[in-house]
Amino acid sequence: MRLETDRLLITLLKPENWPLFLRVHQDEQCMAWVSAIPDDEELQKRFSECLLPWFFTSDHMLCLVVRQKKTGEAIGLLGATAEGYPYCQVEIGYAFLSQFHGQGFGSEALAPLCEYLLHHCGFHKLTAHVVEGNWSSRRILEKNSFLLEGVLRDNRLLRGRWKNDWVFVRLR
C-alpha cells in the first residue's frame, strides 16, 4: 500500500520503522492529548500488532508511516481500526512528531487515507475521537470533511483526570 500527496509519501509500517514508532509514542507534546507514555513492553506489543497484515475485517490497527517526499524523513503515523461487518465503519487516528506540528501535514496525510478507506475498502463511515480542547486535531478533521457528531462525557482517563471526547464522523 502506498498513498501520496504533493509533499508526503504514506506507506505500511515495517520492522525498520521501530525508531519512529518509539519516538512518536515518547514525544511528550505529541502524546499530551492521547495517553500517558506507554512503557517499553506495551509499546513493543503495539508495534508487533501493527506489523500484522491488515484487511478491512482485521481486529488490529492498520498502521502507516508518513514521510516527507523531499527529504524522505519519517514524520508521523496514521492508523485505522475497523469495526467491521455489518457496521462498515472504521476509526482513524494520527500522531506526528511535535517538530512537524502546525505545518499542515496532518490534514494533508489524512486526505488520501480517507479516500482509500471510503472508496477502496468500501467503508461507509469514518470516525475519530478527539479529547475535547484539542483544537489542532479538530481542525485536521474538519478540513477533511468530518463533522462533530457529539461529545462523550468523561470518556477518557488522561493523566489522572477524566476528559470528554469529541466524536467526529465522515460518511461516504
UniProtKB/TrEMBL annotation:
The alphabetized UniProt keywords are: Transferase
Query: One Pfam family this chain carries?
Result: Acetyltransf_3
Q: From which domain of life does this come?
A: Bacteria
Asked whether the keyword Acetylation is assigned, the reply is no
Q: Which SUPFAM superfamilies match?
A: Acyl-CoA N-acyltransferases (Nat)
Looking up InterPro entries in the UniProt record yields: Acyl_CoA_acyltransferase (IPR016181), GNAT_dom (IPR000182), N-acetyltransferase (IPR051531)
Q: Which PROSITE patterns does the record cross-reference, listed alphabetically?
A: GNAT
Q: Signal sequence span per UniProt?
A: none
GO molecular function annotations of the record = acyltransferase activity, transferring groups other than amino-acyl groups
What residues does the N-acetyltransferase domain cover? 8-172
Protein name (database record): Protein N-acetyltransferase, RimJ/RimL family
Q: What is the species of this protein?
A: Izhakiella capsodis
